[in-house]
Specification:
Beta-carbonic Anhydrase, Chain A, five-stranded mixed sheet
Length: 233
């Protein structure tokens, strides 16, 4: 299981569990005219759409789809995103722009260090389990401040130590490879993406069931803030 922050049951996790149950009962499912239902999209197709969007973005040829008043009206009654994305909160990582997608396309979870803990897993379960996204993408990025702090063993205060403790195993694996400086940080960032992928699988029976049933795939990628490209891991 993913580590829980603090002692005992995670309060936000309990509240989310109740809220997710209510939403599952109340939220309607709609067939959008301009987007296929998530249940009809395969994991490979979802990944291909992301790759195509990323290629358009880095080439300066973004199409900015699904950003019209008509799209707002279409999605007002319900959402059918084709992918759930766990990303860092870094302001240099604008997820919808990176993948050249619009309203109702991506179900995005953003948290510093793209860590995968109770709240993030619960949100993924809603995205994959209730909304039916066939793909989860864990998206890291170069020059990540959260990973840098853990690698450098910086002293941080407040709630930040409990936030970044999930990154520690990734930093340790990177250090064990004998790397230093920029190479060490880059490897730790990549290892942190893998850590998130492993944590979400280990931390959720629902997600594991969907994966084993062939209804869900989990992918990892690295966004390069230096040039806007996406590296697929």
């Amino acid at each position: 299981m993913c580590e829980h922050h603090g002692n005992g049951v995670n309060r936000r996790g309990v509240l989310w569990g109740g809220a997710a149950g209510v939403m599952a009962l109340l939220a309607p499912r709609f067939s959008l005219a301009s987007a296929p239902a998530a249940s009809t999209v395969t994991p490979d197709q979802a990944l291909q759409w992301l790759k195509e969007g990323a290629a358009r973005f880095v080439a300066g040829k973004s199409e900015r789809p699904n950003l019209t008043p008509a799209r707002i009206s279409e999605t007002a009654g319900g959402q059918q995103p084709f992918v759930t994305i766990l990303s860092c909160s870094d302001s240099r990582v604008p997820v919808e722009y990176i993948f050249d997608r619009g309203i109702g396309d991506l179900f995005v979870i953003r948290v510093a260090g793209n860590v995968c803990d109770t709240d993030e897993i619960g949100t993924m379960e809603y995205g994959a389990g209730h909304l039916g996204t066939p793909l989860i993408l864990v998206l890291g990025h170069t020059k990540c401040g959260a990973v840098t702090a853990v690698v450098n063993e910086d002293k941080v205060g407040g709630s930040i130590p409990k936030l970044v403790d999930n990154i520690v195993p990734a930093a340790q694996r990177a250090k064990a490879k004998g790397l230093t400086k920029d190479a060490l940080l880059l490897e730790a960032i990549k290892e942190n993406v893998k850590q998130g992928m492993n944590d979400l699988k280990a931390g959720s029976e629902e997600l594991s069931h969907l994966i084993h049933a062939g209804k869900l795939n989990v992918a990892g990628a690295l966004y390069h803030v230096e040039n806007g490209s996406v590296e697929w891991l």
